[in-house]
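Posting this for the archive.
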Amino acid sequence: MGGTGSGIYGARLKEPKVTLEQCKCLKIDQVQNNIDPTTKELPMWIEKDGESQNRALGIAWTDCNLGGKRPWFICPGCDDRKGKLFYMRGEFYCRLCHDLAYRTTQISGNRVAELDWKIHKVCQRLELQSTDWLNQVDHLVKPKNMHRTVFFKLRIILMYLKEKRAQAQLNEMAKLKK
């Protein structure tokens, strides 16, 4: 149970959902410094059906324990407070209203895809293109402002994941031959 190809997505019975990583995201942290605690709406220009439309995203404020206020977006679909809104089909809604999935839920059970995703995440931290990791593991350049110990740990993790990925590919090829 729960192996490769199990479930409605692995058996190709249903099209995979759109993932969070495929959508543009607006975080409250990105606009927090540009608004004051009296702001109730954030005006936005949205491109929908080839024309620009003026919309307003609602903002709610909550009191913090040590003083001050914290802003939240109000999702237009469910009227809940959210820290992130996702842009898809010309609308900003939360993850649940857009029915978005996490990338990791769609690659579960496929060992090579899981390792590719882990490699992609490490490459992001090392500021590498995902295609460069195959050749450049030995000749990586430490990104600016990254601690040397963190850089060396990530480099070791990348080499380990590269070996695991090669083993997983060999195992999958062996399964196909049987």
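The mean pLDDT is 83. The radius of gyration is 21 Å.
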